[in-house]
Amino acid sequence: MTEDGVIGLGGTLPWHYSADLKRFKRVTLNSTIIMGRKTWDSLPIQPLPERQNIVITRNKSLEVEHYSSLAQAIQVARYERIWFIGGGFNL
């Protein structure tokens, strides 16, 4: 997070810390990741490998596992460990 409280800017990270990205990968492997559509759209790699990617969206044409509610997404999670990523969206 920046001193101004920014954790994302315009669908991107305003910084690049290799160690932070490696930690994110390590802790989220073999987990379920739930995110909103804008976060999905911002991912440089889709889907995130070795993780169950679930997107909360009303867009039925999205080519990823997606549901219209958080409750549905949690219900179908294949892993005990669930991560919520993104910012600004309402689940």
Tag the structure with descriptive keywords.
NADP binding; dihydrofolate reductase; dihydrofolate reductase activity; EC 1.5.1.3; DHFR_CS; Dihydrofolate Reductase, subunit A; 25% helix; 4-stranded parallel beta sheet; 91 residues; 4 strands; alpha/beta
Can you lay out the helices and strands and say which pair or pack?
Blueprint: H1 18-28, E1 32-36, H2 37-42, E2 52-56, E3 66-67, H3 70-75, E4 82-85
Parallel strand pairs: 1-2, 1-4, 2-3
Summary, kept brief:
Keywords: NADP, One-carbon metabolism, Oxidoreductase. This protein is 25% helix and 18% strand.
What would you say this structure looks like, in words?
- The protein is α/β, with parallel strands linked by helices and 91 residues long.
- It has a single domain (18-85), classed as Dihydrofolate Reductase, subunit A, CATH 3.40.430.10.
- It has helices at 18-28, 37-42, 70-75; strands spanning 32-36, 52-56, 66-67, 82-85.
- A 4-stranded parallel beta sheet has the order 3-2-1-4.
Assign the CATH architecture.
Answer: 3-Layer(aba) Sandwich
Which oligomeric state applies? Answer: single chain
Morphology:
globular
> Taking all residues together, what is the mean pLDDT?
86
- In the CATH scheme, the class would be Alpha Beta
Classify the helix fraction into a percent range.
Answer: 25-40%
Extract low-pLDDT stretches: none
Instruction: Tell how many strands the DSSP assignment holds.
Output: 4
Helical stretch tally: 3
Largest sheet: 4 strands, parallel
- How far is the first residue's CA from the last residue's CA? 22 Å
